[in-house]
């Protein structure tokens, strides 16, 4: 099915959720003159949120002055790695002052690369790691180990780096690391818990990259995790790790995750003290490390809020740390929307409810036909709960441009969504039960498709109540 710009949906014929004909949607839309403006406003706010975390705009101001003497090595991983590398090259003019030549390698998700002159960009697998990421991580570690005290290391970290910077611990094959990642995804483990496990089966994460460097380290971080804990972003390659092998084992037990024998044995050996722990807070090695948070989810929510404020609509930030099952979070938000619509409390319309964070979608074992991600599933559940409530419009999208399994950033919903999908043969309840939110929004041409944004500060959700 074609997917035109969701700001200009095509007229169609639809039925309401009860099955009765709903008429022609061109006239339905005409009866709600706010519809097109509301949808355009939601998309404008999302674009502003993404722009607030654009590395090409924010990296240069955070870099240290060009290094005098020695080498400047740039390494990194994440969905924003390529754009961050380009920003470094532009800021340094391709070469540091004096004798220090700019060089390096970063790894990003497939189709997220950008052309560079001095910093090599490698594309690899995400969310499940692959051999390309393993080779890139091995190259990065070897380069860092070759630095001396007169050199400088700049590390570029962004969301997705945990999978992309995958270098399994000795004795763990890449196939077993892949299997562990798939199992944790299947179990619906939150990203922070997933990263605790990954830190303890890695040779490079959990502060070990900084541990390998004799040169001073400056790390620029684009946060994609709730609470902006730097040790959780890309599994904190240059950040002290407060978690332990015992914590990793406890996570596997809590989620009932079954991992390969090599992974289980490695974690158990670590818990017994037979393998060195990741470097902890207070370790003297971090005296030569400067970790700088340069973009956060909250900053992007504020940018989105400014758009609504400019248009005379009160924005309410509900937090950048929202987690939980996507469909269940949507049920809570729907209850709040109904309260506002019925009683103008706790906020009076017009109002925009804005939130970020990272929800989860837990798939049953052997699930077939699941398509989409946490943003589209949240939005479908919200639409179903609201049942076509008039004057309520919503957008949910991932700032990296990819929501889960498909190629869309997210989707947009309005009071006609349920009826249009029913007419298109994609009823909301069936699609939600099948975890096929992508199919629901694709059927009504309401996917938000941006392509890779080359940044990532997690999800952006906005519910506009007029």
From TrEMBL:
Keywords: Oxidoreductase. Pfam families: DUF4147, MOFRL. Residues 1-36 are annotated as: Disordered. It comes from the Bacteria. Its EC number is 1.1.1.81. Residues 42-268 form the MOFRL-associated domain. Gene3D superfamilies: Glycerate kinase, MOFRL-like N-terminal domain, MOFRL domain. The keyword Oxidoreductase applies. Residues 1-15 have a biased composition (Basic and acidic residues). InterPro entries: GK-like_C_sf, GK_N_sf, MOFRL, MOFRL_assoc_dom, MOFRL_protein. The keyword Oxidoreductase applies. GO terms for molecular function: hydroxypyruvate reductase [NAD(P)H] activity. It is an enzyme of class 1 (oxidoreductase). Residues 351-459 form the MOFRL domain. SUPFAM superfamilies: GckA/TtuD-like. PANTHER family: GLYCERATE KINASE. This is Hydroxypyruvate reductase. It comes from Cupriavidus pampae.
């Amino acid at each position: 099915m074609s997917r035109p710009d969701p700001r200009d949906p095509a007229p169609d014929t639809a039925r309401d959720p009860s099955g009765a004909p709903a008429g022609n949607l061109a006239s339905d839309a005409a009866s709600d003159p706010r519809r097109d403006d509301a949808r355009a406003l939601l998309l404008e706010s999302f674009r502003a949120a993404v722009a607030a975390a654009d590395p090409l705009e924010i990296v240069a101001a955070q870099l240290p002055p060009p290094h005098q003497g020695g080498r400047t090595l740039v390494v990194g991983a994440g969905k924003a790695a390529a754009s961050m590398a380009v920003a470094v090259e532009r800021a340094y003019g391709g070469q540091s002052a004096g004798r220090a030549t700019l060089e390096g390698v970063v790894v990003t998700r497939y189709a997220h690369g950008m052309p560079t002159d001095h910093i090599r960009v490698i594309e690899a697998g995400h969310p499940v790691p692959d051999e390309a990421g393993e080779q890139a991580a091995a190259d990065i570690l070897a380069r860092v180990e070759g630095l001396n005290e007169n050199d400088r290391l700049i590390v570029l970290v962004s969301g997705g780096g945990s999978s992309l910077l995958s270098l399994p611990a000795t004795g763990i094959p890449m196939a077993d690391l892949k299997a562990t990642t798939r199992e944790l995804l299947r179990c619906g483990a939150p990203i922070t818990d997933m990263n605790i496990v990954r830190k303890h089966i890695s040779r490079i994460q959990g502060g070990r990259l900084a541990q390998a460097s004799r040169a001073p380290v400056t790390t620029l971080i684009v946060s994609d995790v709730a609470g902006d804990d730097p040790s959780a972003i890309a599994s904190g390659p240059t950040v002290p790790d407060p978690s332990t092998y015992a914590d990793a084992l406890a996570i596997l037990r809590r989620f009932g995750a079954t991992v390969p024998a090599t992974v289980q044995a490695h974690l158990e050996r670590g818990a017994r003290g037979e393998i060195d722990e990741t470097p902890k807070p207070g370790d003297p090695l971090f005296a030569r490390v400067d970790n700088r948070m340069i973009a956060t989810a909250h900053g992007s929510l504020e940018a989105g809020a400014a758009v609504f404020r400019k248009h005379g609509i009160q924005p309410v930030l509900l937090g950048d740390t929202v987690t939980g099952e996507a469909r269940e979070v949507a049920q809570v938000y729907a209850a709040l929307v109904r309260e506002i619509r019925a009683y103008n409390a706790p906020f009076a319309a017009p109002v925009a409810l804005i939130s970020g964070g990272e929800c989860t979608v837990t798939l049953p074992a052997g699930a077939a036909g699941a398509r989409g991600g946490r943003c589209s599933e949240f939005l479908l559940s919200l639409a179903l709960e609201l049942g076509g409530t008039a004057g309520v419009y919503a957008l949910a999208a991932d700032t990296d441009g990819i929501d889960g399994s498909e190629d869309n950033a997210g989707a947009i919903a309005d009071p006609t969504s349920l009826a249009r999908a029913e007419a298109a043969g994609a009823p909301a309840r069936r699609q939600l039960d099948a975890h096929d939110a992508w199919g629901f929004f694709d059927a009504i041409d309401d996917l938000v498709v941006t392509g890779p944004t080359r940044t990532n500060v997690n999800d952006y959700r906005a519910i506009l109540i007029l």
